[in-house]
Amino acid sequence: MTAAPPVAHQGFARAARPLVWLGMPVLGVVNQYLAVETAHALTGERFGLGWLAAAARTPWTQAWVACELLTLAVWMVVLSQLKLSAAFPMTALGYMLVVGLGWTVFGEPVSLPQVVGGAAILAGVWLLGEPEARS
Questions:
Q1: Which site from 21, 81, 90, 123 is most exposed, i.e. has the minimal number of CB atoms within 10 Å?
Q2: In which band, very low, low, confident or very high, does the pLDDT at 4 lie, cut at 50, 70 and 90?
Q3: Cβ(92)–Cβ(75) below 8 Å
Q4: pLDDT tens digits, residue range 42-79?
């Protein structure tokens, strides 16, 4: 006879699916936003040790590192509860969110091939997630 899982473990199990569907893609978008702002903050700096020092001093880089650490923690919670083959494809939703971020925040154009490719990604994520949804 096996004991019931600890309460904290049950909470992780309930949190894993929303984290992978919403948390990981959103964190991916935030990471990309912070990467772009870090790149803008370092425009004009020559790459080298001075560039690394400037990167370490900018609040954009510091926020980016903090967001990456949060992303790692969330991913560990997800992987503790879901199979990698089910969880990882769901992170592809972030690709669509990044295209939307580029369009809405940075004024980047969105082309028809990007829209069609995004639809293909979403269809693929749905198809890959179907077996997991039935289990």
A1: 123
A2: very low
A3: no
A4: 999 889 999 999 999 999 999 999 999 998 988 888 88
Q: Which residue is listed with tokens 């289990």?
A: 135
In the chain, domain spans: 12-81, 83-134
Q: How far is CA 67 from CA 17, 33, 41, 61, 63, in A?
A: 20, 11, 17, 10, 6
Chain-wide mean pLDDT for the chain?
A: 80
Report how far residue 84's alpha carbon sits from residue 44's, in angstroms, rounded to the nearest whole number. 41
Q: 71-91 as b/e, with b when 16 or more CB fall inside 10 Å? A: beebbebbeebbeeebbbbbb
Q: Which residue has the tokens 């899982």?
A: 5
- Computed on alpha carbons and rounded to an integer, the radius of gyration of the chain in Å comes to 18
Buried/exposed 31-56: b ≥16 CB within 10 Å, e otherwise: bbbbebbbeebbeeeeeeeeeeebbe
pTM reported for the whole predicted model? 0.66
pLDDT, residue 96, reads 79
Least Cα distance to 41 among 53, 55, 62 occurs for 55
